């Protein structure tokens, strides 16, 4: 499932490539035909991400709300400028960048007529030869401008909302550090008033917005916290430190396009971490492997419907 940094990057992609001109909105799959008709022909004036939810405002005061869920993804194509990210993370074939002296397909600001898939990770795919490209797969909604197209597949939520409905949706979410830089107090209160394991609370989007399975495991290890500690038992300073670490990791993820949760890496260790997910996390997805700090086998259990990873020795 895409976590908060991915959704913020998707919102930035829309802001960069889709605001301004009128947008042709359709539903090739047919499941969003009525909603598409309400937005068709209007311009996007704003894109917003809050936690795992994204909102596109159109010039007639209606919004498109999207939650990608477990299987959703956006495919972008056309003359789009792509945020930089490690080549090892993108995968797929690199497209040739259009522009003088631009040899790297990862350069920021370089226009290209290609495909870019954005979900949990990002994949730069081959250049396209026909404009507009044919929809691939079950496309719930297509947003098309003269130079760019965005196709949405497999979302949990895709609906048109009024500003009142958008405000009500956001009001139900916990704080997001990139939206609520002063949300530390609300996060601490949300955690410390509940007799629920902190490993479960971090996955509750009404407690804090944007954290998913990877960030949950890594934040708890970085804090050396037992995932089963009730939120009400966390000292205030520990809860504050969790929020601040989440703000740091989220900003880093948005800037780099990666969930790189191990600090202090240098040289070959850093290059391996950039190229492979297996080398960039402390505990996530490392069941039975030795803890990188103490050597104890990493444990795994199901919590809040997802696999939880932690070190039984260091996280006590």
Automatic annotation (TrEMBL):
SUPFAM superfamilies: Glucocorticoid receptor-like (DNA-binding domain), N-terminal domain of MutM-like DNA repair proteins, S13-like H2TH domain
EC number from the UniProt entry: 4.2.99.18
Keyword Phosphoprotein in annotation: no
Top-tier EC class: lyase
One of the GO BP terms on file: base-excision repair
Domain of life: Bacteria
Cofactor(s) this protein requires: Zn(2+)
Domain FPG-type: 282-316
Keyword Transcription regulation applies: no
CDD domains per UniProt: AcNei1_N
One Pfam family per UniProt: zf-FPG_IleRS
GO molecular function: class I DNA-(apurinic or apyrimidinic site) endonuclease activity; damaged DNA binding; oxidized pyrimidine nucleobase lesion DNA N-glycosylase activity; zinc ion binding
Keywords: DNA damage, DNA repair, DNA-binding, Glycosidase, Hydrolase, Lyase, Metal-binding, Multifunctional enzyme, Zinc, Zinc-finger
Start and end residues of each Formamidopyrimidine-DNA glycosylase catalytic domain: 2-91
Family, as annotated: Belongs to the FPG family.
Name under which the protein is recorded: DNA-(apurinic or apyrimidinic site) lyase
């Amino acid at each position: 499932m895409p976590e908060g940094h991915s959704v913020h990057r998707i919102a930035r992609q829309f802001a960069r490539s889709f605001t301004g001109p009128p947008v042709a909105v359709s539903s090739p799959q047919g499941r969003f035909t009525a909603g598409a008709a309400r937005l068709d022909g209007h311009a996007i004036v704003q894109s917003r991400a809050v936690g795992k939810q994204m909102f596109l405002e159109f010039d007639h005061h209606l919004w498109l709300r999207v939650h990608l869920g477990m299987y959703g993804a956006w495919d972008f194509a056309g003359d789009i400028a792509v945020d930089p990210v490690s080549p090892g993370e993108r995968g797929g074939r690199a497209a040739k960048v259009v522009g003088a002296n631009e040899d790297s397909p990862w350069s920021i600001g370089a226009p290209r007529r290609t495909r870019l898939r954005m979900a949990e990770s990002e994949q730069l795919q081959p250049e396209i030869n026909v404009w507009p490209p044919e929809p691939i797969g079950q496309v719930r909604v297509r947003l098309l401008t003269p130079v760019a197209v965005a196709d949405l597949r497999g979302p949990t939520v895709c609906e048109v909302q009024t500003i009142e409905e958008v405000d009500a949706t956001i009001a139900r979410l916990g704080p997001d550090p990139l939206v609520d830089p002063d949300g530390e107090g609300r996060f601490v209160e949300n955690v410390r008033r509940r007799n629920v394991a902190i490993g479960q609370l971090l996955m509750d989007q009404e407690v804090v917005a944007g954290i998913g399975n990877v960030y949950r495991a890594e934040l708890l290890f970085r804090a050396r916290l037992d995932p089963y500690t009730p939120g009400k038992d966390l000292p205030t300073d520990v809860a504050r430190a969790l929020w601040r670490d989440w703000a740091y990791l989220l900003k880093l993820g948005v800037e780099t396009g990666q969930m790189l949760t191990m600090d202090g890496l240098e040289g070959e260790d850093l290059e391996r971490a950039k190229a492979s997910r297996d080398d960039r996390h402390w505990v996530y997805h490392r069941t039975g492997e030795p803890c990188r700090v103490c050597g104890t086998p990493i444990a795994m259990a199901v919590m809040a419907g997802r696999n939880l990873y932690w070190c039984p020795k260091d996280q006590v």
